Amino acid sequence: MNTSDSKHEKAGSISSSFSSDPPQDTEFGKSGYDIDRSNGGSALYAYFNLTCLTLGTGMLGLPASVKNAGWGGLALIILAWLMGSYSGIILQRTMYKGKTRRLASYKEMGDEAFGKIGGWISFFFLTWMLIGTPILYLVLAAANLNQLCAGTAGEIGTFKWTIVWCVIVGIPYIFIKSMKEIALSSLIGAVTMIGTVLITIVLTGIDAPNHVGTVQHENVIWEGFPVALSTIAYAAGSNLIYANVEGSMKNPKKWPIVVVSSLTTCEAIYLALSICGYYVYGDKLVNPVYNSTPDGPARIAAIVLVTLHVVIACPLLLVSFALDVEDMMNITVERLGKKKEFLVRAGFRTATMIFVAVIGVVIPFFDVLMSLLGAFSNSALVFILPVLFYWKLDGFRNKPIYELAWGALVLLYGLVALIFGTWAAVDDLVSTFANGYHYQI
């Protein structure tokens, strides 16, 4: 089902523990308010979509965030999980607060809540993540392949591997028209990432005796909190695709269960990997964490699995971006005809992949890109905008004081990550270029 259908719907309400009773099944999807969900995917498909994307973003950088912040970083991870779960639930409620239709994107929610300026600001943050994260993933995939092919004819450089991966990802990206079409690949992506985590934890345990007394641990490293916050914000949720994934569900009343169970699964894996990684490698831990483990077949397997994962996860983001923009541009079969619609859509998506490739070869720094994306964009998408939208569209005075206090804490968390995390990430990026970094061509 194409989520662009959601543009033609009329208003109602959604179930949640914080709002009114849920509508009856006969009203949900049949009253004209909701989109046509007759061919929608199951809650399990939605769960795998979210888990695939969230695991990929968080698993790679969170152990390094604990290294930056000390053991206190674990508290930040747990707090981000609770806040991310809350923001995912209230974001769905916000989708159903439109005056005449379901609000199908961050831009529409911004338009409804704060006018055109609010809509374009929301769209800017969303686009930063939907395009920036595939760039980050393709940079990682290129570096991994070049590393695996070291000493062989396949060691062609990160520049060329980035181009190759852009072509591999770009071909199916042109043809995918809905989030449901990539649900199975999301399942595969989630399995590959879980495999990577298990291999890394086992290797870390085996390697632990070699690092006893050689590494340092800190309870709290205050100066490292801004970068840690930005990385944790990057891993706190998949809000950027929530609207499209929710729109592809057959039964949207299961959304709160889907989003909370997905983030809880990721949280358990995050904590296990972060604790093991920092305990064994301490101040010597590197990002991604599997590069801290000993060389050998198991580490190669982990690199292969995570490479498969990030390549599978890229279309989740790119398709979500394309669906939003193509809907804004009214690129539909009804308006253009089947052949012309495909040509216009293919041209737009090809141009998107070219942009992704150019940025990827110009800024091939995985760890710096992760911090920058998390601080500047995901902190707004996960912590700031959902609360502001919810308060504006659902009301402020009608909420109990404890919920308002929690919402204020979520806003504070996001603002600190946005301001101080962005500052630290930009400083790291400038320093990397100033030190004369050169990538292999």
From TrEMBL:
Pfam family name, one: Aa_trans
Cellular compartments per GO CC: vacuolar membrane
The subcellular localization recorded is: Membrane
Cite the GO molecular-function annotations of the record. Answer: L-amino acid transmembrane transporter activity
What does the record say about its membrane topology? Multi-pass membrane protein
Predominant cellular place of this UniProt entry's protein: membrane
Please report the stretch or stretches of sequence annotated as the Amino acid transporter transmembrane domain.
Answer: 40-425
- Keyword Transmembrane helix recorded: yes
Keywords, A to Z, come to: Membrane, Transmembrane, Transmembrane helix
Task: State the similarity comment.
Answer: Belongs to the amino acid/polyamine transporter 2 family.
Q: Which PANTHER family has this protein been placed in? A: AMINO ACID TRANSPORTER (PTHR22950), AMINO ACID TRANSPORTER TRANSMEMBRANE DOMAIN-CONTAINING PROTEIN (PTHR22950:SF703)
Name assigned to this protein: Transmembrane amino acid transporter protein-domain-containing protein
